[in-house]
Amino acid sequence: MAILGNIIKGVIHLKDALSSEVNHQEAQSETLVHLLKEAEDTQFGKHYNFDAILKSTDPEKAFADSIPYFDYNKINEEWWHKLHDGETDVTWPDSPTYYALSSGTTGKTSKRIPVTDEMIEAIRQAGIKQVFALKNFDLPADFFEKEIMMLGSSTDLEERDQHLEGEISGISASNIPSWFRGYYKPGEDIAKIDDWDKRVQRIAERAKDWDIGALSGIPSWIELMLQEVINYHNLNNIHEIWPNLQVYTSGGVAFGPYEKSFNALMGKPVTVIDTYLASEGYIATQVRPETDAMQLNTDNGIYFEFVPFQPEYINQDGSLTKDAPSITLKDVELGQDYVLIISTVSGAWRYLIGDTIEFTDVKRAEIKITGRTKFFLNTVGSQLSVNKMDAAMRELEEQYDTTIPEYTICAKRGEDDEFYHFWYLGSELKNPDEKAIAESLDNALKSANKNYKVARSKALHGVKVKVVSPECFYDWNERNKKKGGQVKMERVMGEEKFKEWETFVNDD
């Protein structure tokens, strides 16, 4: 009998019984006031007169009216660079303990995003919320006695100028509570291995020693790890070595594109729980099984604003125009894509995180990620967002009985000087009829998006498709950034980057 598991499950249910449901709108108002009070005496707080915002009758409106939008480049050039020069109390009191290294979409230059002790605590609290939400998924008591495989970047953080640097997954894993370490795999020694391939090799070698009940990590890297374990032990599926695997906590990117290829590695169904942990904070987590939407962490160190995702508010580089209107949680609507804006206990202010979201339940503050502002393709009026592209991939998977976990697209002129959408699809499809696939893809997008259909009848001349192995995408990511990291593959490329990509694929 799973005695310990029953005790843990009982504690989770007791915690829920004693907790009151969060009023998300009130929590957000309280969060903004807390952020403003904490940062009132910082350089940023004095410059933008947080004291006056706090004294106003409507702090949320005063906040939006007083402070411009920032993306990473803008806030780093104007404020965060001072931290690197040794200044303190810049956008948040004192100095950050960590910096999260993130190139976001694959790139050679890493962003250095401050991570304060307050943010580490906020991430920890969000993780606890996720654990307590497991009661909603009706898992058996013995699940709570199994081990959890957390696969991210190395926990061997680099010490630099009296702080530590690494990717957010490595920073988070290096701060797991002591009581959790007995459950945590692959364990501290393996997690510190910097070389991803060597780390995965050690996981494969040790796999038989562990009783894994849950997986956590970015889908593409989790899949590669599972495939390595399967190949090393000559298995048909991962459940032959980890029979008690019941839960996969996905994060970093949307799980949808990987669902079919992930399930192909399983021997039986597992519960998939989506999470939204970015370098800038723990944004949201799925808390109930009736939906794959995620609940915003509204009471945990992050204040959210939302800008309607309309072409007139988006600059060519994915940033927002100065006059783009923002709204708060109380005014959002269903069925509308929004650009996500955050202010945090790490000193990010009205910060464009780069993602677009859609609300599925306003009262519960539940969202889905719908794409990236930089991946919005509006060349010749096609207005293609990532969620529309993802949906088209799912249609192709069904039609051609394959998996397409990765893809990228570029809109550019062809040899005839007409505009085309050039697609590269990552699939193991044998002898693909690329012209037929292009026609199927074109039809799927016409059905899903009226703006695309109009563009196809005018300036967008056609669709061209090339099918390559998914390994090309993983190798591209590895070339641009370490394997296993917080990589968001470029779903949409500019012409210069696309030329690099095509050269890379042709040389591979």
Automatic annotation (TrEMBL):
<protein>
    <submittedName>
        <fullName>GH3 auxin-responsive promoter</fullName>
    </submittedName>
</protein>
<dbReference type="GO" id="GO:0005737">
    <property type="term" value="C:cytoplasm"/>
</dbReference>
<dbReference type="Pfam" id="PF23571">
    <property type="entry name" value="GH3_M"/>
</dbReference>
<dbReference type="InterPro" id="IPR055378">
    <property type="entry name" value="GH3_C"/>
</dbReference>
<dbReference type="GO" id="GO:0016881">
    <property type="term" value="F:acid-amino acid ligase activity"/>
</dbReference>
<dbReference type="InterPro" id="IPR055377">
    <property type="entry name" value="GH3_M"/>
</dbReference>
<dbReference type="Pfam" id="PF03321">
    <property type="entry name" value="GH3"/>
</dbReference>
<feature type="domain" description="GH3 middle">
    <location>
        <begin position="298"/>
        <end position="364"/>
    </location>
</feature>
<dbReference type="InterPro" id="IPR004993">
    <property type="entry name" value="GH3"/>
</dbReference>
<dbReference type="Pfam" id="PF23572">
    <property type="entry name" value="GH3_C"/>
</dbReference>
<feature type="domain" description="GH3 C-terminal">
    <location>
        <begin position="390"/>
        <end position="496"/>
    </location>
</feature>
